[in-house]
Amino acid sequence: MTELTLVQAVNRGLQQAMRDDPDVLVLGEDVGVNGGVFRATEGLLKEFGEDRVLDTPLSETGIVGTAVGMALYGLKPVAEIQFLDFIYPAFDQIVSELAKFRYRSGGQYPCHVVIRTPYGGGIKGGLYHSQSTEAYFAHTAGLKVVIPSTPADAKGLLLTAIHDEDPVMFLEPKRIYRSVTGEVPEGDHRVPFGKARLVREGTDVSVFAYGAMVPVVTDAVEAVAKEGISAEVIDLRTLVPLDEAAILASVEKTGRAVVVHEAARFCGFGAELSAILAEKAFYSLKAPIARVTGYDTPFPYALENLYLPNVERVARALRTTVRSG
Amino acid sequence: MTELTLVQAVNRGLQQAMRDDPDVLVLGEDVGVNGGVFRATEGLLKEFGEDRVLDTPLSETGIVGTAVGMALYGLKPVAEIQFLDFIYPAFDQIVSELAKFRYRSGGQYPCHVVIRTPYGGGIKGGLYHSQSTEAYFAHTAGLKVVIPSTPADAKGLLLTAIHDEDPVMFLEPKRIYRSVTGEVPEGDHRVPFGKARLVREGTDVSVFAYGAMVPVVTDAVEAVAKEGISAEVIDLRTLVPLDEAAILASVEKTGRAVVVHEAARFCGFGAELSAILAEKAFYSLKAPIARVTGYDTPFPYALENLYLPNVERVARALRTTVRSG
Amino acid sequence: MSATQAPPALPTAVSPGVAGMTPEDLVRAYRVMLLSRATDDRCLSLQRQGRIGFYVPASGQEAAQVGAASALAPEDWVFPAYRELGVALYRGVGLERLIDQFIGNAGDLLKGRQMPNHYGYRDHRIVVASSPIGTQITQAVGAALAARRRKDSLATITFFGDGATSSNDFHAGLNFAGVYRAPTIFVCQNNQWAISLPREKQTRSRTLAEKAEAYGFPGVVVDGTDVEAVHAAVADARSRAVRGEGPTLIEAQVYRFGPHSTSDDPRRYRTDAEVEHWKASDPVLRLRTRLTSLGALDEARDAALVEEARAAVAKAVSAAEATGPVDPTTFFDDVFAAPTPQLLAERDEFDQLLKDGAVKP
Amino acid sequence: MSATQAPPALPTAVSPGVAGMTPEDLVRAYRVMLLSRATDDRCLSLQRQGRIGFYVPASGQEAAQVGAASALAPEDWVFPAYRELGVALYRGVGLERLIDQFIGNAGDLLKGRQMPNHYGYRDHRIVVASSPIGTQITQAVGAALAARRRKDSLATITFFGDGATSSNDFHAGLNFAGVYRAPTIFVCQNNQWAISLPREKQTRSRTLAEKAEAYGFPGVVVDGTDVEAVHAAVADARSRAVRGEGPTLIEAQVYRFGPHSTSDDPRRYRTDAEVEHWKASDPVLRLRTRLTSLGALDEARDAALVEEARAAVAKAVSAAEATGPVDPTTFFDDVFAAPTPQLLAERDEFDQLLKDGAVKP
Ligand SMILES: Cc1ncc(C[n+]2csc(CCOP(=O)(O)OP(=O)(O)O)c2C)c(N)n1
Ligand SMILES: Cc1ncc(C[n+]2csc(CCOP(=O)(O)OP(=O)(O)O)c2C)c(N)n1
Ligand SMILES: [Mg+2]
Ligand SMILES: [Mg+2]
Q1: Would an 8 Å CB–CB cutoff place A278 in contact with chain B?
Q2: Per the confidence metrics, is the pTM higher than 0.90?
């Protein structure tokens, strides 16, 4: 065990995978000499050479298209997209190609690429260094979508992603890249996909969150605990595959649900959670399902603190939900 | 009034707008000499000339980027993307640029482009001529999303779109391009955004649908009517802006809801409808909210009839929902 | 060059070190070209009769495809668009297997998932095609870099049309290939049209081949109706690639004789006279003449070969049409390596609907 | 060319018919360049002090920017990237207005929505910048075609970096411009680096300018540290554009003296020696020397101009820092022309949170 920040844990995960498997390689903008603009790939070029750490031209189309070709051949490329906001030039390769190769070939051509990218607000990044568009990918059949919220999960889920057989979108909450530290197991630490993390047990209401919202939710839950509200916190970890069993079990117990994400509300991932509950936990529900989310505006610069769900917004939703019904 | 197919109504809408406003122009692949691969732009080149009907090179990035520039200058470009499945090379221009110009400039640069594109299954198009990814656009703040289901609406909503001030994604249900005909008003017929269409009144359950699913739902509702089930059918027409008032009013009346779309289920538009109901109509709901949708697989070719919601699947959901609770 | 005019005199890219095709090679190529042409003819009529849903003909482009395929080694990887029937046939993909795919039946290795012509066969190192234009181009570069990393001495080749030169992946793919000196051969089959858009409205560059200069590697124009010329150009590009000298762009000038696809009516945008003009350089006829002049073919043998092709197609169609439909229980396979709980739940729902007869294929 | 070596001898694109810059023009340009440099220096230190959040310096590229801006007509539309301070200043955007934007305060016309440097001012026909690389390139072409359709005799100009030549929009934009002969001037400021990627790893083409050939129009390389050379090249391109002779790509060779942005540490990827080498052709120093040799400047006047720039920046910063914060009630404006019911509902929720003090800017 070592105490690491989340971004250091990502770095150790990459290093571990590259040491263990010569087929793993890393490509992206500024990932080599510069070690990544967030230093997630620091030291990799030196240890593994230009052959396995490719500084690419400025083309996300090229990065993902090339990674897809490498994966078809049998390598395990880990592509870095510098910010999730800049992934769209690669969107065609991701949704039309990467997500569909295995299916469209009848299983002849699996295509296992991991796309790592920092996402989310809270770093004063304005419209284009802040967005959370995980719902685009979760809606795309054939992609797995992973979002860690702790250093140990960052390493453990990344290693699972790299050794998985399917395409994985690995979204890193850059806001807590350095602000969150934690013990991270050494070696080939793996955290399985599809198993949510029970952050805190509770009986009155279930709160579902992921990524940088988990610490916000934890603080809010602590705040309302003083008021006698017992909230259960579940960190989803992987949006696809989703741990529906854990979600349903929790709401069957508490009867109430609050969903938190920083992405825009309309058609955001929270809608899917609500829909699952409204369909499969309907008879357990005692109160309306609340969503605490970003707004349906582009992401603002100066007013980002008004956009992002904060402790007080979550706390209010918890209070209202517990008092309703 | 003239009896037209849906694609003819689109064509008349374009013609009308181009006759009325010299700033309207059309651009896209094969839209000129060929009149569009579905003939939606038939006759326009002849009437309006190369200056206003641009056959473009094979680049959706170029089509939308160029349209954005034209719109910034003050024209009203209507871009055709040959199939929704081929829009992804333009995704960056759509979500990063078109959707955000007005906001990011503090209102200095409105950017009004209409993007027309055929979407959906039912024409044996396989993975890449069948998809319904409206949720991507509905989740993107700054875009309006319109889907007509009748010839009159196709013309009326298109004319509203062209004379709107915001970016509009205009998704045309190609499966019913020719199979559905109807009376279409002459002239500058406009159908307002944000007003759902009450297709059929009912008391036991509300069904929400749009596009090519509307006729399927109507048939299903007729089938279960014989069994004594009175279903209300609402055609959303515009997903953004959404006629939430109509949706809530209907469910407050019926207490039950079934959502139908051909898009994949997970994080599909139906999830948002469920979430709105689970939050705002919670106390009216008497039964779980059912979703009848495409599956979370890529769109298959030979088995497309198994993928698409059909009359019987909708009917079963109606029966189950009415009998539950 | 206007699509309505004659093709220009083309500098043929034959490099001295590269072995040409022997008469036996040419006969082999000819037989594949005949088979390709016969498949087109038959499938166009099957489509008209509703026996297959859609079809993309390759007629007019056989020499470019077969010429290229004949210059490859079996270990090379092919990244096709959707029109490369000649390549698949040359690499030995069974005709029945292809017709199975066109029908989408139980014999289709792709499990009926894709439209006709969008196939791929791992055993033949042909990567499965998709519809979005150009996407295979960057992928071919990635595979080439992967092969190099594995120290496999081979090249990747990718086929695309004149229209695809406008795609994002053309730009990204050629640029990456230039930067990393990828062992990739880019074959642009310039068939003068991208559906209804003529080549000269696709881009204002003089040739498509010269676009390679923007990426720092050579581009050559070749007469794509001459199987030997294409073979030589590709063989040359391949040896440069495996020698570590980087990529090549080859523009094979051809003409699409038929419609873009069975959904297309080419009379809306081009004249019969133009088609006739180009038919004078029908690649099948050209090779027939060449073989005759080499003494490798006479009329009787030619008739036999034509009949052989026709019969092979007839046989494959019969067999494929006798094959049962694709199995609906495969519906949820291959979305992921193993289905997620969500997919398992959807599959249960689906199975129930099937069992109850609520849905029918 | 390696970024670590001297720039090659450059063919300067001066065409005879185009008027050069008078000494008065050059003094005007010099003052703007001084102002740009002074703004950079001050803002880098404001950022270090936490008084602005982020900054993108333009130092080293002033001659390219001001030279280009000085060759435009006021009616021309500018589509910048994020580094074109010299263009904004030359076109008369008030410095205080810019600092307001860097702070994102109540004086910011963009309502505090964007990161520093991502501005745009309709009154000055400067389109609002975004971060995604290259997206402005196709837009500039669209605006040019729109202007032509409106029969407005003007050109559009777009600025981008060496890295942006790899973007999708570069390829699509230049291709559309070629096909439609758009009156667009493409100015690539090749500052040798795209963050940490040197120019020679961005693409293997010999120059960036030559990429224009792939789209059928001329590309020229110009010494971007020489304001007159850039002016001449852009003036020439502009007259060709408005005469209907189509687009031009201009590669202005420059060097970025500072970090990519305040988030960047250039010592990770380049040497001090390289920076020093390029500082020998500092565009501000070059123009100072030129003006001195023309007799248009002496030491005293120069010192006064430098001080004038410094004082203007200090004044603008004080004024901008005295301006209040952006008004939170603007939060939901401009998503659409008028808010949708969904947005109105969100605004109500938001207003309540604000009122209750549950959220703070
Ligand atoms: C991204 C994308 N846009 C549009 C289409 C529709 N489309 C299919 S084929 C085609 C023309 C392709 O032309 P070319 O590249 O020359 O190939 P050819 O069909 O002539 O062999 C178009 C526009 C598509 N498949 N993908
Ligand atoms: C599509 C996209 N990918 C990545 C980035 C991150 N990024 C910002 S600037 C930059 C380098 C740009 O280089 P260049 O075009 O040469 O412009 P310069 O900054 O040198 O002026 C990168 C990679 C981005 N903004 N957009
Ligand atoms: Mg073609
Ligand atoms: Mg640069």
Answers
A1: yes
A2: yes
